[in-house]
Write a structure and sequence with these properties.
CATH architecture of the largest domain: Orthogonal Bundle
Largest sheet: 5 strands, antiparallel
Order of helices and strands: HHHHHHEEHHEEEEEH
Helix content: 25-40%
Strand order of the largest sheet: 6-5-4-3-7
Structural class: alpha+beta
Strand content: 5-15%
CATH class of the largest domain: Mainly Alpha
Number of strands: 7
Distance between the termini: 38 Å
Number of helices: 9
CATH superfamily of the largest domain: Cytochrome c-like domain
Length: 255
């Protein structure tokens, strides 16, 4: 299996190098139509119709990780390390380029409509919603949750709203909740920063980093299905949720 993955990556790199100079060689209307079935099979489980899945919003003219067709080709074939985007096995070079064309066509679609006020949502983010306690935007805020500086370029309004009312529906990669009890009885709860065979590093809710040897632990519970984020279903009105979604969707990290 490992050799097969390496061969796939090597083939992707060669194809990418050969085509970068001339751009996508399979980007006609026929290629885009041919890629629809490929997209449904390989991509729709996570990306939905492009803007309503649990993964990145593809209905954007500029994708943060794929500024060029060549970069998008490489992402489809090799994935993005440290994220939920996997590498693709079994796609030919032509099929990969056709998928690139299909995703770019999605990016030319009309953006998803939002009903709320971004300015009111911004006030909610830093005020009543206290979102900035855990989330950072443009260098301001906390680090308990994902950085939201470009969340509007990565997630669709429907996904943003679901995350607000049901945070455990989709846990962001890299933010595993852990509960630890040391052998001397100390209890630590927070998000995992790093882990290897012998140690684990955890950021607690006061933003303090704990580096612990596993041999010193009495318990290490990983809560893979739990989120530290509260649900706003009862805390915010429907209009306030609309406003907060509008603000989050406006965050494009300079894109």
């Amino acid at each position: 299996m490992k050799n097969r993955i390496l061969r796939s990556l090597a083939a992707a790199a060669l194809s990418l190098s050969a085509a970068q100079a001339q751009g996508n060689p399979f980007a006609t209307a026929d290629d885009i139509r041919a890629a629809e079935g490929l997209y449904q099979f390989h991509c729709s489980f996570c990306h939905g119709r492009g803007d309503d899945g649990m993964a990145a919003n593809l209905k954007n003219p500029r994708l943060p990780h794929a500024p060029s067709d060549g970069a998008l080709f490489q992402i489809i074939r090799a994935g993005i390390p440290g994220t939920d985007m996997p590498l693709s096995i079994g796609l030919t070079d032509k099929e990969t380029w056709q998928l690139v064309a299909y995703v770019r066509a999605l990016g030319r679609s009309a953006p998803a409509p939002v009903r709320g006020s971004s300015s009111l949502g911004q006030a909610l983010f830093w005020g009543k919603g206290i979102c900035g306690t855990c989330h950072m935007v443009a260098g301001k805020g906390g680090r308990q949750g994902p950085d939201l500086s470009d969340i509007g370029a990565r997630r669709a309004p429907s996904h943003l709203r679901q995350s607000l009312v049901d945070p455990e529906a989709s846990i962001a990669a890299g933010f595993l909740l852990v509960e630890i009890v040391t052998r001397d009885g100390k209890k630590i709860t927070g998000t995992r920063v790093n882990e290897n065979t012998f140690s684990i590093q955890v950021r607690d809710f006061s933003d303090k980093i704990h580096s612990l040897r596993k041999s010193d632990l009495a318990q290490l519970n990983k809560q893979s299905a739990k989120s530290t984020m509260p649900s706003y279903r009862q805390q915010l009105s429907d209009q306030e949720l609309d406003d907060l979604v509008a603000h989050l969707y406006s965050l494009r990290g300079g894109l």
